[in-house]
Q: What sequence folds into this?
């Protein structure tokens, strides 16, 4: 009998990191992309060690039944990737959504018949060509279901990832975690992409005032949605969080800036549109978020 594998759909940095860590720890993995990548992939660890591993790569879903499907595409590509898979999946297959923002998750959560978990991670990774991924910095991963269900499945996935070197925890409040990450991304990513600057430069005039104005709009939406910052409260809590992340990632080119520089589509809609539509629902004015949403592509 063939071993059931984790299908990892979307071989970007997080998808490949996940695939190679799982392979390294003895799990079956099939890495699926729009084109099949080389089957020998090198993983460089944050400590600088390089391991070359064999992984099954495909440009379409295999015939077998997966144990679990991880969708690791960019947010804007997730629904099309899911549609291409759906006919190959038994309805009960667990689906794990790794997207940024809060757009894909409720939509795919509503259309997949089996369990749907969401994951949000601070693992740092980037790809170096078709056959190499660099795990640039250790982070952690939170996993849960939007309605708080499937706790045992979330626990077992968190244990599996942790054993594979990606520390993870099952959480009952993944919706809050996704919105908290979205808040940070909304305050940093569109502005650094627009001005083509590294994250730390946001601390300088003239960007600083613009970041503060975006945080104020985001904090208003978060309050109306009942989402508290991870520490502190209200506007001050959100300000502290955003400026802490800016400081910790000062030298980074944020993902949205990398997409702009590479001429790729960005995740601006998945990050900004949920904020703007929540603001509209709550009767809040968010002119800066709306302008960023209108001007990004
Ligand atoms: O998550 C990020 C990203 O690049 O998307 C931040 C937190 C902005 C760090 O660069």
A:
């Amino acid at each position: 009998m063939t071993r059931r594998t984790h299908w990892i759909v979307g071989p970007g940095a997080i998808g490949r990191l996940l695939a190679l860590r799982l392979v390294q720890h003895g799990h079956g993995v099939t890495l699926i992309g729009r084109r099949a990548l080389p089957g020998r992939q090198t993983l460089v660890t944050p400590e600088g060690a390089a391991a070359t591993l064999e992984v099954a790569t495909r440009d379409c879903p295999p015939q077998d039944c997966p144990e679990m499907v991880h969708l690791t595409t960019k947010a804007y590509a997730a629904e099309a990737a899911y549609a291409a898979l759906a006919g190959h999946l038994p309805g009960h297959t667990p689906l794990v959504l790794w997207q940024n923002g809060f757009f894909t998750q409720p939509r795919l959560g509503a259309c997949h018949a089996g369990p749907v978990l969401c994951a949000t991670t601070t693992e740092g990774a980037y790809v170096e060509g078709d056959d190499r991924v660099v795990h640039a910095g250790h982070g952690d991963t939170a996993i849960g279901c939007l309605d708080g269900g499937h706790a045992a499945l979330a626990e077992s996935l968190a244990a599996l990832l942790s054993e594979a070197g990606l520390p993870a925890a099952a959480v009952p409040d993944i919706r809050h975690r996704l919105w908290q990450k979205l808040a940070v991304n909304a305050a940093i990513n569109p502005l650094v992409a627009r001005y083509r600057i590294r994250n730390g430069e946001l601390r300088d005039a003239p960007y600083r005032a613009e970041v503060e104005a975006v945080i104020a709009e985001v904090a208003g939406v978060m309050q109306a949605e009942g989402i508290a910052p991870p520490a502190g409260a209200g506007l001050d809590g959100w300000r502290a969080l955003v400026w802490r992340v800016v400081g910790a990632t000062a030298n980074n080119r944020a993902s949205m800036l990398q997409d702009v520089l590479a001429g790729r589509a960005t995740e601006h809609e998945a990050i900004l549109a949920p904020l703007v539509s929540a603001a509209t629902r709550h009767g809040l004015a968010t002119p800066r978020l709306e302008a960023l949403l209108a001007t990004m592509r």
Summary: The longest strand covers residues 116-121. The mean pLDDT is 95. The CA atoms of residues 131 and 199 lie 28 Å apart. The chain has ten helices and twelve strands.
